[in-house]
Amino acid sequence: MITLSYKGNNTFLEAVNKKSGSDVLECYQCGKCVSTCPVSNFMDFPPREIMQMIKLELKEEAQMANSTWFCLTCSACSGRCPREINIPAVMEAVRHLAIEENFHPDSKQVKNIRKFHEIFLAMIKRYGRNYELRMMAEFNIRTRNLFKDMHLAPTALLKGKIPLGVKSMKSAKAIKKMYEMAEKLEQLNK
Amino acid sequence: MARVGVFVCFCGANIADFVDVPTVVEEAKKIREVKFAVDYKYMCSDPGQQMIRDAIVQYRLTSIVVAACSPRMHEKTFRKALSDAGMNPYLLEVANIREHSSWVHQKDKKAATEKAGDLVRMAVAKSIANEQLHEISVPVTKRALVIGGGIAGIQAALDIADAHIPVTLVERSPSIGGRMAQLDETFPTLDCSQCILTPKMVDVASHPYIELIPYSEVIELNGYVGNYKAKIRKKASYVNFKTCTGCGTCWQKCPVKVPNEYNMGIDKRKAIYTPFPQAVPNKPVIDAEHCTYLLKGKCGICAKFCEKGSIDFKMQDEVIEREIGAVVVATGYDLWDATPYEEYGVGRYKDIINSLEFERMVSANGPTGGLPIRPSDGKVPKTVVFIKCVGSRDKAKGIEFCSKICCMYTAKHAILLHHKVHDSRAYIFYMDIRAAGKGYEEFVNRAQVETGAVYLRGRVSKIYQKGEKLMVRGEDGQLGREVEVEADLVVLATAIIPYKTNPALAQLLGISYDKYGYLSEAHPKLRPVETAKAGIFLAGCTQAPKDIPDTVAQASACAAKVCGLFAGDTMKKDPMISTVNNEFCSGCQNCVQVCPYQAIVTEEIPLGHGAREMRTVAKINEGVCQGCGSCVAVCRSMAINLAGFTDPQIINEIVAI
User: Fold this and answer.
1) CA-CA distance, B329 to B156, in Å (whole number)?
2) For B510-596, where are the alpha helices, taking DSSP H only?
3) φ and ψ at A6, to 5 degrees?
4) Where are chain A's structural domains?
5) CA distance B63 to B34
6) ipTM associated with this complex
7) Cβ distance of A29 and B423 shorter than 8 Å
């Protein structure tokens, strides 16, 4: 049972809107995002329901949903949204709020997704691009699942799908600088 | 000896593909009376008509048979061809060999051809007995009666009067304005209702071609299109409008307080009152049901204070008569009483109001000065729940239709609530959002995005009290979960129903109405403003729920219809109507019963030549008769004949097959 009443402004909505740059109130619940989304089948609450939760200020439920973590940010939904809502940005905003407040699902899946994000960002910071082989190895080590997808490795390596090294990038330094600036900005915003 | 010409049409391929047209012509030629028969590709075209005109002269034809499409399509065309050739147009017969043969017997050409031959034979036989008929001219009284002074009646009256046609506008209450005068702002543009309506009300009062009769009702309507006689009862107002200046002393002094209908009973008015400050006419009336003087013979304070001596307690109801040519019915709507919704506690909880009550509260000239309040404690509500489809679309409660305007006015109410109480939120329980109209969808979006109104898809299952709050339980269909809103105020968008007097009015006007009391139009698509009775038109919510733009459009359509009716000094009418042969009429009055147009009355005639004793016979009003033939069918003494379909004509047809 959801109990609703007016208790001042919907601060959750305001925060999500501010972070995402979209207005969730624009959503008219058509569900086109849900049928577009390649992973909505795996979500506990599809994007449309997340939108409704934000409207109803069901903050805890929205943050505890695994949907925002499962979102691939592929932008298929926002490309088709008739109300021009940047849905991945909204999903991301909810996810970020959840991280800031340290209130999010601590299921293994979500933990792994967080680890994946962290490793990926670290790779970019370090090399300016993704070092795939190292990323896979680190992910398998950190998730304590050493042999995950290992059976695919020989074929992938032989066919050159996974390069053994990583080519250095001219702009790697610039990217590192971007990271530092972003971190500073984050500090300032806090 | 009759000389018949037969003209068979190919209708391009429509007839020719399935009926062997030359064979039909040959068959026709075999008939003794047929002096000329021919076929042509398109008989309705000008060369085709010319063939008819030429043949009439050349072969001295006495009647014409055209075997072609339905007479509904081209009977008029061919009649005109006949009269152009100097022949009486009613000597034409149309054999419908398209709809009645080629189109329905596409699989069997031989049988279709045979049937077409039969149809032609019948038409030829009938045409031999055709008589020369002449159009009937009916005089027209160029005055329109408009019943109801809401926006529909006002618009119709103004449009008709602007065409210099006199209008009598009859309004039941003391002022015109109707429901629209009660509204605050109107969707989808949020114009102030008063600002756009009151100028029109003043126009009505000052228009040289409009006679405004407020506080009165139509009690009788006799006659037929162009020649109606209406009786109007002017209710006693007990105030002499000629001398009254509308100064207001009387209603300030009056000690009797009565629930104010204009404000939906939220505040009180006096027993002598004008409904609202912008009333037209702005003269007070005394409410006889509540006036102490009229009830008990004491008080009379208003009379004592009236400087002009305008109060007249001896005034009586007055019945006046008007001769009119057309009627526009615009009696408007009422809100359904939601008491059957026991699960909502309607009537039990004070803080459940209907949408018109909310409208009055948020209205700038309303009883609360434009602020919504809780009737129970007068506090300003923060959480307001709006429930749509209360009554509407609820078969169990007896109303199956959609009230059409609730989606829009609820969105408007959400916006108005936000305007009046900034720190508030509207929760709207809906089934569908029906926002079909120019700028409507955008307006609903505005309610959702700008004011943050929360739309919850589902019907409310119950409302119960918990402390000061009303707990509204329903489902949020979007999440598929039960929700409960702690509401300060609940507003019900109850169904729109016609006035309860509509059936009685329909009966006295002689028009039909549906099970809800809505007056019926002649055709739902192609004749939406006409009724089945000629000269009576419908505007506004008396026909079905509709919003202001639709109402105004329909009212203007009525005006166009009335102006069209009054375009000439007389109306031309088809001569194919019934006549009674008094010699045979037994006075059984079966025909009076079956006539759908109430065209048949009875009259007394001497029993015999010069006799004193009288007997009753039927009499047909040729202005009203539409020539349907129902009376002919029920007349057991065969006293009634329908011109164009006389017994000899029909018998000839039967004999021919």
Assistant:
1) 10
2) 548-565, 590-594
3) -80, 120
4) 11-100, 108-189
5) 10
6) 0.88
7) no
Alpha helices in A39-106 (DSSP H): 47-55, 59-64, 67-70, 76-80, 87-100
Rounded distance, CA B365 to CA B356, Å? 14
In the structure encoding, which two tokens stand for residue B391, read together? 């009554």
Q: Model's pTM, two decimal places?
A: 0.83
d(CA B71, CA B75): 4
Pairing of the two strands B570-573 and B136-139 = antiparallel
- Chain A residue whose CA is closest to B482: A1
- Judged by CB atoms closer than 8 Å, whether chains meet at B476 and A56 is answered as yes
* Domains of chain B and any CATH numbers: 4-128 (3.40.50), 144-332+498-565 (3.50.50.60), 337-496 (3.50.50.60), 574-656 (3.30.70.20)
For the ranges A180-189, B165-174, B231-240, B545-554, which has the lowest average pLDDT?
Answer: A180-189
Alpha helices in B566-645 (DSSP H): 590-594, 630-634
The pLDDT of residue B137 is above 90: no
Is some CB atom of chain B closer than 8 A to the CB atom of A187? no
Could you give the maximum distance between any two Cα atoms of chain B, in Å?
Answer: 97
Contact B483 A26 (CB under 8 A): no
pLDDT in tens, B344-369: 999 899 999 999 999 999 999 999 99
Flag whether residue B448 sits within 8 Å of chain A, measured between CB atoms.
yes
Q: Hey, are the CB atoms on A6 and B382 less than 8 Å from each other?
A: yes
Q: CA of B445 to nearest chain A CA: how many angstroms apart? A: 7
Identify residue B249 by its one-letter amino acid code. Answer: T
Q: What is the CATH number of domain A11-100?
A: 1.10.1060.10
